[in-house]
Amino acid sequence: MKEYDPLVFLAVFQEMLGPLLWLLPLLALAVLVGFVMVLRRERRLASRRLLWAEGLGLIGGGLALVLMAVVSSSGFTDAAGPADWFLILIVYGLGFVASTVTMYTVLGLLALRPAR
């Protein structure tokens, strides 16, 4: 690949993720809008809710690794070099952050009254 062509990346991601390629960005946008709504309503982060969301984020990071193993043709036993392990850590970290923000948003939207 001598030239950078973003359509090649789009085709590869479409092949790997299928319909998830379009569902995940829409879900991310919905979570972002919900998160902003919760922050505007409460005007601060609720620490107890954030701790619960972080705890659930640990599970979300693991689920991101499972999704990575399902959509790729290699498993964790194929990770040989530092770049592979660095990629695994990045996927776990992104899954942790995404699921933490998602759970904080869901818990905030389900709250009957703002936390004090």
How does this structure look, described?
With 116 residues, this protein is an all-alpha fold. The protein has four helices and no strands. α2 packs across α4 and α3 (47-71) crosses α4. The chain is globular.
Give start-end ranges of low-pLDDT stretches: none
**Estimated radius of gyration:** 17 Å
Percent range for β-strand residues: under 5%
Broad shape: globular
Number of strands: 0
What structural class do the secondary elements suggest? mainly alpha
Terminus-to-terminus distance: 56 Å
Compile the SSE list and pairings.
Blueprint: H1 6-17, H2 20-42, H3 47-71, H4 82-110
Helix pairs in contact: 2-4, 3-4
What would a concise description of this structure say?
This protein is mainly alpha-helical and 116 residues long. 77% of the residues lie in helices and 0% in strands.
Keyword list:
116 residues
